[in-house]
Amino acid sequence: MPLDTQSSSQSSSSAALDKQLNADNSLVLNTNLSYFQFSNTAVRAVDLYNCTLLQEIDLTCSVQDEIHIAIQNCPQLNLIKLPINCKAYIHLDAGKLLPNLLIEGGVSHIDACWKGGRFLQQHSTDKWHKVMMGPWADNLLFNTSKAQQDDKFSTLLVINQLLNSSNELTINPEKMSGQYDLTFVGISKLEQLNLSSTTTGINSLSVLQSDRLLGVNLLTDSRINLCHIDECKSFQTLSSHNPIKTLKIANSGLQNNKNELVAGDQVSSEKRSLKINAQLNDLFVSDCHFTDFQLSHEAKVQFIRCQYLTVVDLPRTSQITCEGFVPPDLIGLTEVKINESYIKQTLPDVLKGDLQAWELMKTILATAYEKEWASLALRTLLEALNAGMDPSEVWYLRNVIYIKNQNRGSRTNNISVKRAKKGLETWHWIMDKDLAEDGWRADWLIASKCLEHKVYGLDKYFKLMSVQVPSTTFAAPFLIDWISKKMTQFEPIAVKFMAEGLESSPQNSFYINSDWIHFAKELMFFEEVKETNVLINNKLLEQFKKMQSDCFKVLKECLEPLEMLQFLAKNFSKNTVKSRMSLLDLIAKPPTSLPERHMYRYDESIIKSDFIALARELLMTGRLPV
Description:
Elements: H1 8-18, E1 26-29, E2 35-37, E3 45-49, E4 56-58, E5 66-72, E6 79-81, E7 87-93, E8 101-114, E9 117-122, E10 128-136, H2 140-143, E11 154-162, E12 168-171, E13 179-185, E14 192-195, E15 202-208, E16 215-218, E17 224-230, E18 237-240, E19 244-250, H3 266-269, E20 273-277, E21 280-286, E22 292-295, E23 300-304, E24 311-313, E25 319-323, E26 335-337, H4 340-351, H5 355-365, H6 374-386, H7 391-406, H8 417-422, H9 433-452, H10 458-471, H11 476-488, H12 492-504, H13 514-524, H14 538-558, H15 561-570, H16 576-588, H17 608-621
Parallel strand pairs: 1-3, 2-4, 3-5, 4-6, 5-7, 6-8, 7-8, 10-11, 11-13, 12-14, 13-15, 14-16, 15-17, 16-18, 17-19, 18-20, 19-21, 20-22, 21-23, 22-24, 23-25, 25-26
Antiparallel strand pairs: 8-9, 8-10
Helix pairs in contact: 4-5, 4-6, 6-7, 6-9, 7-9, 10-12, 11-12, 11-13, 12-14, 13-14, 15-17, 16-17
């Protein structure tokens, strides 16, 4: 606590050091003084390092709005004085010692660590006017603030040790003034914590890293805004006489009911219950190993990565959100938030054929229809399909995701089986551009593989895709080239896809774009297929040759007449026979877009007679006139 007397030599020494501020008004202090008082009003940051004798530091002179103080290896420091109007940020490393520290003045943020404990707290709205850290004994910490009468006065109490012998602590002080945030950190022997009905002014209660804590009972007459339980491995019950605005329980439920650590695979088989008897606005349960959960009153509930939770008992009127895992009791009743790390974590079990993991994965993927998640969902479905999951289930789920993707304003789960099997008669995924390429490819591969397994409705939809993929502005540049490479390697499904697309294209010229035309140009003069290639059967070879014939029809329909002749001239030497056969066809049946004569005096378009003359010239000489 503050020293009663200070020597003049210490005061003069501290004043001298005070003048040595850095350009940014900071000071690294390494002193053997027991008391240090600043006089420079500009001081805004102080690092206290290895000040082994320092007991008190006074920065009340500072006029800065924010003050930053870092403390390391200052074992005797027990008082820091700050301006009441500042918002200080305190960083404390107490090493092996339990902190016993009083901070007077404005504190907005404090984080501290020592052997056996650590915490970080940020004031919810503004600042604390006092921070007290130390052991608990006979309400000593509460009684020190009795003189303060301002109800707006805010105090943070951090308890790091119980000095009494009992494992149960009941807080039952007289009526306190002001507001208190109460935090227990690393209390290894605490099993039961009670706030009596006379306890008032508690804004928040946190119990952290207290392995033996079983329960918390809040009988306080005032409403608590936040209750936070974190790293309390034995925790089982919480009850409250009055409503709690927000309850957060994290990293808890890791022990069995006998307070013995559960090791290895036993964690997943032990029953570990959490019972909440309180009125809550919001409840967050994250990264906990509870298997059973019971809530007495309706609330907005979020389960985040609670992968052992199997039994859930709560009012059906509660709003429930799951992230990372959906308990079986909540399937179909909850909104699911996508968690990519959980999908990646669960996927190996799916790939091993774990049907339970697959059921849970399906629940999560059915909600992954927003544009930022659709690509991940499709890539995951493809991996599941490759691992041997039922193609009909995969395609059904793909259609559910697609239907929701197209109607993203509607989050309904009531998609009929008939509609999901049939899907939609469109192909136009809405995906983030950065992720879309992988998503489009995954969808094409899913459709291809499911078609090979003769999944219901795929043959018709695959034909639809063959026409609509080339017409999709963003997808075509990626997919046409990628699928055509598969086709020229004579992958049957790719040949089928491109053949059906080409066959439909002359009758659907609206769908033709530059990427499709580029493909048709490349394929038309693709080098002759060697029939000795044993990987190519006769049916596939016929289909491939027909595609080359269809390419000519596409180009004849879509290129300008003169551009068509220039294309044939460029490739004349590459395949003279095919070029001449194409020219003969053009001479016999010129493009229907050619006019018989110039319509206007200054019309520069080529007419049918000129086109035929140029085609004959190319047929005879192999080149067009300059």
